[in-house]
Structures are given as C-alpha cells and as structure tokens.
Give the backbone structure.
Amino acid sequence: MKVIPVPCLSDNYAYVLVDTEGKQVAVIDPVEPEKVLEHVEALGMELTALLTTHHHADHSAGNNEVAKAKPGLEIFGGDSRIPSMTKQLKDGEEFTLGSLHVRAIQTFGHTTSSICYYVQDKHNDERVVFTGDTLFVGGCGRLFEGTPQDMYDSLNVKLAALPRDTKVYAGHEYTNSNFKFARSVDGDNSDLIAKAVRCAALPITMPSTIGEELDTNPFMRVDQPALQKATGKTDPV
C-alpha cells in the first residue's frame, strides 16, 4: 500500500491510495481533479473508487468532474449531500479495494456526513486512516453539525481504539498552528515539543500516527492531569 498526498487549494489535502498488490487506485477528497488524476495517470493503474470524508465543498467539489471523467466509478460517502455518491456507508461497514480492506468509521462532530476510512493492507501489515476534518495533526475540526460529546466519541473512543501504528492522513495542513495552541495548554509535554520542532521544518507533515496523536494532540489527551490543570476542568468533554 502506498499513499500519495496531493496538496490542493490553500491548505487542503487530497490523497491517492495505491493498492500495490492489486494494481488499483482510489482517490480521497479530489477537490482539484486535474491535480489528482494526473497522479493516477502517472501510475498507470485503474482508478476504481473515490472516498469522500464529508460533504463540505473543499473536500467534495471535485466529485462530479471525476465521476464524468471515470464513468462507473464507485463513489463512497456518509450522507446524501455527497456529490455523485453511488454508495452511502454505515458506521462499521466494510468493503475491499482490490487487496485492501476498508472500514468506514462514522465520526460525528465536524459534520454528520463525516466518515473516516480505516484501510488495512494485510499482505504487508500496514494500516492507515483518512480522517478528513475530524482529526488533524495536533488538533481537530470545528463543530458545525455535532456536539462536543460527538467529537469526544469520534476522537477518544473510535479513532483512539485503532492500533497506535496506524498512519493518519488528515484533510488540511494545519499542523504548525495547531501545535501553537497545543503547547499553550500542554507545554511540558516532551513528545509534543519534539514533534512540533520536527514538523516546523516540513512542507507536508502527513502522515502522523494514532500513537503520536494520543501522545501529543490535546484533544486526545483531555483526560490527562496537565490538560485538566490548564483548562481548569476535569470533565473531558
């Protein structure tokens, strides 16, 4: 399995997911279709699926163009607002992309259309998750259609349960600004400090891992005494 980040717009990411065993390709949130399809064409593999993390236009606006360019393409999403969707997913629903195994994780909070895609390459013992605007490196998405409890459950129940070595590919390059906030509430966290320094020198900070987020992301550390002291609250929500 290979993942190619494709920077789009001002700070978005689309992704090309390559099944190296089955010689197939899927794309995630191809908001600038020409950029994404250029990568697909260069690979010389069949594009078989489009995965949409949520309905916001900066993630889904390229769906119709990709659907026209690739008739018969399977387009996955979380609710009826996903353009050109052919398959609406339920929480926990599983499917395959060539040799890759995918599980849909419904992650309310940012929107009620949000789906994170957990992908396993069992041949090579690799796993990744595409988190859209639910989980960022060092942060999380704004609450537009969900509650704090929804976001807590999405981050700290569902995503936190994934294996620590799961690579995280988020929907935006917000890492350095997220770390500024994180260090203001968790400034003694040596893991956070080291990662912030490392990422400051990188133009693309993807991927992170679930383990790194559990160790450095304040929104996944809300049960830690340091965070509770900084916020003056003990309720993690």
Notes: The mean pLDDT is 96. The chain is about 30% helix and 30% strand. The CA atoms of residues 51 and 204 lie 21 Å apart.
